[in-house]
Automatic annotation (TrEMBL):
CDD domains: SCP-x_thiolase
Phylogenetic classification of the source organism: Bacteria, Pseudomonadati, Pseudomonadota, Alphaproteobacteria, Hyphomicrobiales
UniProt domain Thiolase C-terminal: residue ranges: 271-372
Organism, scientific name: Microbaculum marinum
Record protein name field: Thiolase C-terminal domain-containing protein
Matching Gene3D superfamilies: 3.40.47.10
Pfam families documented for this protein: Thiolase_C_1 (PF22691)
Length: 422
């Protein structure tokens, strides 16, 4: 039986992606503090984060010749930031987007380097998400257009309001309980308690989560991500250049970017509202990586809300649809569990950077260099104890080799990435 044109294209695309597996690496990480009131412009913070990432990689600013950023009309474009740093760019791109952006931009960086357009790319996100533009906060009266005619006009003006119907539907169909979902916050708070950078390092209980006020039923206040001011940056380059950088390289095995459901503007008009775009992206992600979710040691499932992590873990195949409540509450995601999730505390506790900090945390895990409370040895590296008990301060996952980042733009749009060390 002959093959169709579509199947031939799929085979070719898969072979191309497999050929790129492990050929590009994340070599530098940069952050500013996660604060509530930075006192700095997004332009100044972006420069700080990029400098920190370049230093972390053991590179010079002059080694950077590509720059990518994303924003929600709340940041500074790369041309200005590059000029401040004395960097001349061979390629730059500033995109509009939120939580589904970082993995997608890593894919763009790989593409432009592969095309010979530049050599080493800085990907950054700078935002005053608390003291400046607050996502979903009430704003000035303005004319509504596009999808807002069907959302803001009906009272769905914030992410919590927009996603709440899908969360309620999941509870109705699958019997998912508030107590199960609250465990996402509980576990991430346990991880944040071991993170000196976390804005909210205090551990919480299920009762405390469920006793906090309702924001948009069934979402409680403590189930919402924190609002922070910060800038974050990662450096992407080829395998060959990565081998000369300061740290153990972390290689990109697979990436999918901004995969969308048929209706990405009004998600509840297209199919099961409890199913995210991750269900459509999963086959491509794992095929291109050459592995499955069972091979992953640590995950970073976007936790804008407790429920977003649950839905993503289901749709990317870490558990079956409807079993997310058990997965997030049975200890699997804890440090010391089978597959820890958001080991730095995530967006619920560490800080909110549209997911950049989740990628940074997974890279540190694969370097075996999580910045926790463990002592630093004479070599300058942390001597991890792997004590993940109640009194332990270690958040390093023992022998972590493969990590997955599961991004979230909306229920209808998502990105993801698989990372590994050699």
């Amino acid at each position: 039986m002959g093959t169709t044109a579509a199947s031939r294209h799929a085979e070719t695309d898969g072979a191309t992606a497999s050929a790129l597996r492990g050929r590009y690496a994340l070599v530098g990480l940069g952050e500013t503090a996660y604060t509530r009131g930075s006192g700095l412009s997004t332009r100044a913070m972006a420069g700080q984060a990029i400098r920190n990432a370049v230093s972390d990689a053991g590179l010079r600013l002059s080694d950077i010749d590509g720059m990518l950023s994303h924003s929600m009309a709340d940041s500074t474009v790369s041309q200005f930031v590059a000029a401040d740093l004395g960097i001349r760019l061979n390629f730059h791109l500033d995109s509009i987007g939120g939580g589904a952006s970082v993995e997608a931009l890593v894919g763009v960086a790989i593409g432009v380097i592969e095309a010979g357009m530049c050599e080493t790319v800085a990907v950054y996100r700078s935002m005053n998400g608390y003291s400046g533009v607050r996502i979903g906060a009430p704003g000035k009266t303005r004319i509504m257009s596009g999808a807002e005619l069907h959302t803001r006009g009906q009272g769905l003006s914030s992410p919590a309001q927009s996603f709440a119907p899908a969360f309620m539907r999941h509870m109705h169909v699958y019997g998912t309980t508030p107590q199960q979902v609250a465990m996402v916050k509980v576990i991430h708070s346990e991880h944040a308690a071991r993170n000196p950078k976390a804005l909210y390092p205090k551990q919480v209980t299920v009762d405390q989560v469920l006793e906090s006020r309702i924001i948009a039923e069934p979402i409680h206040l403590l189930e919402c991500c924190v609002e922070t001011d910060s800038a974050t940056c990662i450096i992407v380059t080829s395998r060959e250049r990565a081998m000369d950088c300061r740290h153990v390289p972390v290689f990109v095995q697979s990436v999918v970017g901004r995969v969308s459901k048929p209706r990405s503007d009004i998600y509840f008009l297209s199919g099961d509202i409890t199913t995210t775009a991750g269900r459509l992206a999963a086959d491509r992600l794992w095929r291109n990586a050459g592995i499955g979710p069972e091979h992953v040691d640590v995950t970073a499932a976007y936790d804008a809300f407790t429920f977003t992590s649950l839905l993503l873990l289901e749709d990317y195949g870490f558990c079956s649809k409807g079993e997310g409540g058990a997965y997030v509450s049975d200890g699997t995601m804890r440090l010391g569990g089978q597959r820890p999730n958001n080991t730095g505390g995530g967006l619920l506790c560490e800080g909110y950077s549209n997911g950049m900090n989740l990628v940074i945390e997974n890279v540190r895990q694969l370097r075996h260099d999580a910045d926790d409370g463990c002592p630093v040895g004479a070599s300058g590296r942390r001597m991890h104890t792997y004590d993940h008990g109640p009194a332990g301060m270690c958040r390093q996952v023992r022998d972590a080799r493969v990590a997955a980042n599961l991004g979230w733009g909306t229920i209808a749009t998502g990105s993801a990435m698989v990372l590994a060390r050699d």
